[in-house]
Specification:
- This protein is mainly alpha-helical.
- It contains 9 helices and no strands.
Length: 224
């Protein structure tokens, strides 16, 4: 059809030309979106890798190295955000959410180990869904540090960490929205609940064993 009359243009060639004129800007927009995706994907992979290494450094009690790696992850995440910001459909794609979640986990684990409160989603510059899932996974990750403290004989610290994990679980459980809104938070909380139960059992067993050992030592030291 012609633009003026709504009728088909004269001859197939004019129709092709008209279709091409309509397609060209669409194809250009898709090309730009694909370029943005190709730039963001490796940046997101870098965020995930650096965040994982940062968490390992936290568990090794290498706080400075953990912070350095988390800063590098933040820079890569900002790069991904910048590439995807003009394309909402890509910005809300799963691969960016996964990177944000891992970054939140790295920052949160470091702060919890240091005895500090987690940062907010706004402070970390991530979507609310990514923040909640990252917080839940950070609580699960704290089990490793809890067990390390129990092995070191730091029972009070172990009980304190268990309380932190419990608090995070209790607060996140108040988020009562469908998974389509929370990006699958419920699955993360189910996994955290299982980790909590195992951790509670470990703390209880260690405390009882320690009390028994002290009782035996006190009994053997009493004069007959």
């Amino acid at each position: 059809m012609s633009e003026a009359t709504g009728e088909l243009p004269d001859g197939p060639r004019k129709l092709v030309e008209q279709l091409e004129s309509l397609l060209n800007p669409v194809a250009e927009e898709l090309r730009r979106a694909n370029d943005a995706r190709e730039a963001a994907l490796p940046a997101c992979r870098k965020v995930i890798q650096l965040s994982g290494r940062s968490i390992k450094s936290v568990h090794r009690l290498e706080a400075d190295r953990a912070a350095e790696l988390a800063d590098e992850a933040q820079a890569a995440l900002l790069e991904a955000h910048g590439a995807l910001q003009p394309f909402p459909a890509l910005y809300h794609a799963g691969f960016l959410h996964d990177a944000e979640k891992e970054y939140v986990e790295a920052r949160t684990v470091a702060r919890l180990v240091a005895g500090e409160a987690p940062q907010s989603a706004a402070e970390l510059g991530v979507l609310p869904q990514s923040w909640m899932k990252g917080l839940a996974e950070a609580a699960s990750e704290m089990r490793r540090h809890l067990l390390d403290r129990l092995r070191a004989g730091e029972l009070d610290r172990g009980e304190e960490l268990l309380g932190v994990m419990d608090d995070i679980y209790d607060v996140l459980m108040t988020v009562d929205f469908p998974d389509a809104i929370t990006s699958g938070l419920r699955r993360s909380l189910d996994a955290l609940r299982a980790v909590l139960e195992r951790s509670r059992g470990d703390v209880t067993t260690t405390v009882l064993q320690t009390r028994l050992q002290l009782a035996l030592e006190n009994a053997s030291s009493d004069p007959a």
